Amino acid sequence: MMQKLLFIFVLAFTAISCQFTETMVMNEDGSGTMSVEVNLNEMMAFGGAAVTDSMKVKIDTIVYMKQFLEEKKDSISKLSASEQQKLKKLENFNIHMKMDSETSEMIYDISTQFKNVSEANDILSGLEQAGNLMPDQDANTEVKKEEDSPEVIGVNYSFKKDVFKRDAYIKDKIMHQQQVDSMQQAEAFMGGSNYKLNYTFPKKIKKTSNPDATFSEDKKTVTVQAPFIEYFKNPDVLDLEVELEKN
Q1: Of the candidates 225, 192, 195, the residue with the CA atom closest to the CA atom of residue 16
Q2: Tens digits of per-residue pLDDT, 107-150?
Q3: For the segment 57-97, what is each residue's pLDDT rounded down to a tens digit?
Q4: What pLDDT was estimated at residue 10?
């Protein structure tokens, strides 16, 4: 998903940034919510100047993937076992797409609720798979085989004994390097784009592994960010360990 967005911006021939925000809110029992938002408002504002009445767009929809996959089960059954498995991973995710040419809004996000934060490990791959389905689905649309787009970056989340860990890693080093090399021209177009982590915990934070992290006034929320290009080249820059205060 991340590399797809980069190529879109290069084709747009404009130095307009997008913002990625990964948000987590954790409860006392270790359950919570996780979402990844892609904010394309600046790109929408750039294109909005040339929008005529006939080109106006207004979309605000939420797709509940469990319901969507049930409705499309006949179409999905025709896919390969591996493709069906990829879609199955989306079952607990919800996808929100908001686009308004008049207010220059364009926001795309995927979210999930979890009982254990490790259940959110597939959220980035879920975002990519969801991108193959959205936003132009209607009652007659079939789920079709998409061109292969190898996932090169994964993330593992864990929370044990008041210690939260986010560990990003490269799944395929050869493919990752190929994508990095092929996106050199994108660097000039994505200079203002950032990937931000915004995590809220049920207890005060004792310490974190990132010296550049900032905290909310109540010390329960930590925020870390890095330039998107830097994160794509080296996912370790947003690895994070958070230790909470004990009761």
Answers
A1: 192
A2: 888 899 999 999 888 777 666 655 555 444 444 445 555 444 55
A3: 888 989 898 898 898 888 888 888 887 887 787 888 898 98
A4: 41
- Amino acid (1-letter code) at residue 57: V
With 0-12 / 13-18 / 19 or more C-beta atoms within 10 angstroms meaning exposed / middle / buried, residue 232 is buried
Are 103 and 56 within 8 A, CB to CB?
Answer: no
Averaged over 42-52, what is the pLDDT? 57
Q: How far is CA 204 from CA 82, 126, 136, 142, 161, in A?
A: 42, 30, 43, 47, 14
Longest C-alpha distance within the chain, in Å?
60
Task: Identify the sign of the CA torsion 6, 127, 105, 49.
Answer: positive
Please give the full DSSP string across 75-108, using - where no structure is assigned: HHTTS-HHHHHHHHTTTTEEEEEEEETTTTEEEE
